[in-house]
Design goal:
The structure is a single chain. By secondary structure, the protein is of the alpha/beta class. Strand 1, helix 1 and strand 2 form a beta-alpha-beta unit. The chain has a single domain, classed as NAD(P)-binding Rossmann-like Domain (Rossmann fold, 3-Layer(aba) Sandwich), CATH 3.40.50.720.
Length: 395
């Protein structure tokens, strides 16, 4: 089985590549180093340096004897994606240069993933819109023209739904109107421009499913936390990129670093914002289980990819408690919220589907937080206080 991973250098992409490779799949990764370049440009250092994607693929090969083929290229160029389906591809690194063949599965992570980035100003908004929509559209047309049986696993986001005052189902809702019924995508109302591009992705893919019988699983993921996966513990050079800055860091990873450098935890506003969270290891499980039980032809299957919900306040209190047990003096601050979002709201999403296909959740226990702190504290001398909060405003 061949898995093609778009966005294979990212926080989730590289761990996913190793995960499938270890389990015997042929793996090809594509990336244009968007995230690394954006971190350099915006001067938001990562916690530790990470070898390039080609270097990581070589290290992986030396340690496991398994090949991950690498293409460094920009997927907004349609010919790049098409070359991955029609065999014209020239890999940037591979032991065997010949084309692996059509992928049974494409995992699509190749997106600008940050809500604050998308709202820095109109230029970053444009980069987000252009990148995210063009990559998804190019992928759809590549599949339409060369490989309609390939199953796409796209990482969507729970943020597509926003925080409606009604329960959130897994993607679809049946509506009765004037005595007639039909099934529709659940109404979506995102809270950032980035999240809005993910809504547009879903609409593009839904079009491809209806028109060309494509097979798509859209995973509505919540904010992910974590650092080590089963494969990265083999060698620390294989550890995924880790951001703790305001732009690319997600809340749990940020709070952990803040606790360690005596920076009061940056709860935005009143802190009642509730989201669904998951461990990076569960992202891997969810993608794997989706791959094992693919969507059928002409199906857009949607799962809500979260394992438990917390408010920002609850996360801060957890990190404070665990940090204090380890001897850190952890304080909590309530900053004026730079985002425009509900700080107290109803939140009741359904998230059973992934459990039903075999995903076993990991939870954010004190032990898990403590384990993360122990890994992260080794890099204390690299932590920069100036990147923690710059206050990119939504309004
Ligand atoms: N928050 C704080 N303090 C912080 C950082 C965040 O209170 O220092 C709050 C935010 O206001 C927000 C919540 O924590 O209400 C989550 O923020 P986040 O920065 O961890 O996550 P978000 O911007 O929503 O985006 C992240 C990923 C994105 C993914 C999304 C899933 O960057 O790629 O799609 O999580 S979700 O949030 O469910 O839409």
């Amino acid at each position: 089985m061949h898995v093609l991973i778009l966005g294979g250098d990212g926080y989730l992409g590289w761990p996913t590549a190793m995960y499938f490779s270890k389990r015997g799949y042929d793996v090809t990764v594509v990336d244009n180093y968007f995230r690394r370049n954006a971190c350099l440009e915006l001067d938001v250092g990562m916690l530790y340096p990470v070898p390039t994607l080609i270097e990581r693929a070589k290290i992986w090969y030396e340690l496991t004897g398994k090949e991950i083929k690498v293409l460094i290229a920009d997927l907004t160029e349609p010919e790049i994606i098409r070359s991955l389906f029609d065999g014209r591809v020239t890999y940037s690194w591979a032991l065997k240069k010949e084309f692996t063949g059509l992928p049974e599965t494409v995992v699509h992570y190749a997106e600008q993933p940050s809500a604050p980035y998308s709202l820095i100003d109109y230029r970053y908004a444009n980069i987000t819109v252009q990148n995210n929509l063009l990559v998804t559209n190019n992928l759809m047309w590549g599949l339409r023209d060369f490989s309609r049986d390939t199953h796409v696993i796209h990482i969507g986001t729970m943020g597509e739904y926003g925080t409606p005052n009604i329960d959130i189902p897994e993607g679809w809702i049946e509506i009765e109107h004037k005595g007639r019924k039909d099934k529709f995508l659940f109404p979506r109302q995102a809270s950032s421009l980035y999240h809005t591009t993910k809504i547009m992705d879903t609409d593009l893919m839904w079009f491809g499913v209806r028109m060309w019988d494509l097979r798509v699983t859209d995973l509505m993921q919540g904010p992910v936390y974590g650092i080590e996966t089963e494969e990265s513990v083999i060698d620390e050079r294989l550890r995924t990129i880790f951001n703790y800055d305001e732009i690319f860091g997600t809340i749990v990873n940020r709070f952990i670093v803040q606790a360690l450098v005596d920076y009061p935890l940056t709860v935005y506003g009143r802190g009642g914002q509730t989201r669904g969270y998951l461990n990076i290891n569960d992202t891997l499980q969810c993608v794997k289980m989706s791959e094992k039980t693919p969507a059928t032809k002409g199906e857009l299957r949607i799962f809500n990819q979260i394992m438990e919900t917390f408010s920002a306040n609850e996360l801060a209190e957890k990190v404070q408690r665990v940090g204090q047990n380890l001897g850190y003096d952890v304080r909590i601050d309530h900053l004026e919220n730079p985002r425009k979002e509900a700080e107290e709201h109803y939140y009741n999403p359904t998230y059973q589907g992934l459990g039903e296909i075999g995903v076993k959740p990991h939870y954010l226990t004190d032990e898990v937080l403590e384990g993360m702190m122990h890994v992260v504290e080794r890099f204390k001398e690299n932590m920069r206080r100036d990147v923690i909060f710059r206050g990119i405003k939504w309004g």
